[in-house]
Fold this sequence. Notes:
Layout: E1 15-17, E2 23-26, H1 29-35, E3 44-48, E4 51-57, E5 63-69, H2 74-87, E6 100-103, E7 108-113, H3 120-124, H4 136-156, E8 160-162, E9 171-173, E10 179-181, E11 188-190, E12 196-198, H5 210-215, E13 217-219, H6 220-236, E14 241-243, E15 249-251, H7 252-261, H8 279-292, H9 303-316, H10 338-347, H11 372-381
Parallel strand pairs: 2-6
Antiparallel strand pairs: 1-2, 3-4, 4-5, 5-7, 6-7, 8-11, 9-10, 12-13, 14-15
Helix pairs in contact: 4-6, 4-9, 6-8, 8-9
Amino acid sequence: xxxxxxxxxxxxxxxxxxxxxxxxxxxxxxxxxxxxxxxxxxxxxxxxxxxxxxxxxxxxxxxxxxxxxxxxxxxxxxxxxxxxxxxxxxxxxxxxxxxxxxxxxxxxxxxxxxxxxxxxxxxxxxxxxxxxxxxxxxxxxxxxxxxxxxxxxxxxxxxxxxxxxxxxxxxxxxxxxxxxxxxxxxxxxxxxxxxxxxxxxxxxxxxxxxxxxxxxxxxxxxxxxxxxxxxxxxxxxxxxxxxxxxxxxxxxxxxxxxxxxxxxxxxxxxxxxxxxxxxxxxxxxxxxxxxxxxxxxxxxxxxxxxxxxxxxxxxxxxxxxxxxxxxxxxxxxxxxxxxxxxxxxxxxxxxxxxxxxxxxxxxxxxxxxxxxxxxxxxxxxxx
Length: 383
């Protein structure tokens, strides 16, 4: 990073670089207060357990998004430090980099470029959903761009980074609907030569890989699972978890299994597409997503394979990659109790559920799944 933290009240400006030729710097609290009209409610873009995000405009005309953390406890301080450290390392067009930050006695703020098309979530389920901006071509572009951003995290930056919170609200869209993966507060830096780690579970349960949700085993494959859920959400327009009449919940995986078993393949596509899509591409993307959400992490493709597959599909509409498109069973994670929803809030750092999170996967039936990493370790011990 270009500088150490200093007080927001300081007029000293330190600079660094993020992506392309864009620079990041330290902002004063006074600057950000003025840019956001005093963090006015009309400027608020979103709110969650971490705090609030505000739209702003600097004195030189730059549109920014300012994340203002709600509380300064040890946990929030660590997440802030991790996000700033990770953001300062990123140099990729599909990752939302750092525009700047501000640190004061009781204030922590992170500054990003403002994305005029907001998040993927806002177009699938939110304020732009009825406007149907996401045609099939844009959805494929978003799928590929998001995967390329994750590929950079997993294989190109050093040390490798596991995002741990891939979801629709963390995929932002610029003016050309180019996707940028955002929000690195839960990111994990992986030392060279380490394939997986055991850590405290963080993230959004609707997207968490089973081995991570149950045992805290985090690996790059956890991001693949989350990406698979995101891909299913992108092509079907369904939420990761839906409430049914009577209060029951159903995951997107369960819905897809039911729909396929009823031989209603074309009902899987988002109705907002009105049938205007490349069905061959849809078929392959669906199978790719299903492979990403397999229960066993070693059955999921790598992000490199995902990117290669999507590139081939976009190049000529035919799948020519190394992943054989075959329908595999979709792991089902059941949702039953309000206590589970409270658990999700705790994973997100306490407080109310984020306004842009849709439900959670609740208790996973542990007897249906073994710890894959423990299994491999036992095999090595008896070899």
